[in-house]
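Researcher: Go.
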Amino acid sequence: MMTLKIISAEQIEFEGTVEQVTLPGAMGLFQVLKNHAALIAALTQGTVTWVADGRTESRDINGGVADVKNNVVSVCLY
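Model: Structure:
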């Protein structure tokens, strides 16, 4: 399992345990699974999709930055 945090300038919009996350990267969609290598990536307008407890959820974004490290995916929104 991993922790996903979606953070805007005003608040933490989502924080929870997830099985996978799909992000709209500047070079296309990419997926993050447990034990993914550390990375920082620019995000474009699109949809962040995650699976938690077997359910798929999503949120549209206008762009941002993703930081992946030690099974924590932090999505900082513009």
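Model: The beta strands are 2-7, 12-18, 20-25, 28-33, 39-43, 46-52, 55-61, 64-69, 72-77.
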